[in-house]
Amino acid sequence: MPRAKTRVASRQRRKKILKQTSGFFKKKSNCIRVAKDALWHAGKYAYRDRKDRKGSFRSLWIQRINAAARQNGMNYGRFISGLSKKGILINRKMLAELAMFEPESFKKLVEQAKA
Questions:
Q1: Could you give the CA distance from residue 57 to residue 66 in angstroms, rounded to a whole number?
Q2: How far apart are CA 58 and CA 17, in angstroms?
Q3: pLDDT per residue over 85-107, tens digit each?
Q4: Which residues contact 98 (CB under 8 A, 6 or more apart)?
Q5: Model pLDDT for residues 35-73, shown as the tens digit of each residue
Q6: How far is residue 42's CA from residue 29's CA, in Å, rounded to a whole number?
Q7: For residues 111 and 74, what is the distance between their CA atoms, to the nearest angstrom?
Q8: For residue 25, what are the CA distances in angstroms to 30, 44, 98, 110?
Q9: Residue-range domains of the chain with CATH
Q10: CA dihedral 6, 44, 33, 19 (to 10 degrees)
Q11: Residue 38 to residue 104: CA distance in whole angstroms
C-alpha cells in the first residue's frame, strides 16, 4: 500500500488561511504563523462584536426616543413607564422609527403616556 502524503492537504489548509487574511496588514496577510493567529483573533472579535452591536443599537434607539420625548415635554423614563401602565407594547426600535419619521403619531403616544 502506498504511503499517504499530506503535502496537498496541508498546502490547501495554508492557502485557505492566507486567502481569509488577504486584506490584513503586514505579516498578518502573508506569514502563515502570524496569519493563523490574526485570523483566530479576528474571529473572536467578530463574534463578540456581533453581540455588542445589538446593545449599541438599543442605546441609539433609547437616545432617539428620549430626544423626541423631551421635545414633547417628557423624559424617557416617564414616557416608557406611562406606556407600560397604559398597556401599550411597542418595542424601542419601532418607537425610535416613529420618533424620527412619524412625529405626529409619536406625539399622540406621548399624550397617552402623560394621561
A1: 14
A2: 35
A3: 999 899 999 999 999 999 999 99
A4: 90, 105, 106, 109
A5: 999 999 999 999 999 999 999 999 999 999 999 999 999
A6: 12
A7: 10
A8: 9, 18, 43, 51
A9: 11-114 (1.10.1900.20)
A10: 70
A11: 50
| DSSP annotation string for 10-47 | HHHHHHHHHHHTTTSSGGGGT-HHHHHHHHHHHHHHHH
Q: Which grid cell is 112?
A: 397617552
Greatest pairwise CA separation for the chain in angstroms: 86
Q: What angle do CA 51, 55, 59 make, to 5 degrees?
A: 165
Q: What is the pTM of this model?
A: 0.73
Asked whether 24 and 38 are in contact (CB, 8 A), the reply is yes
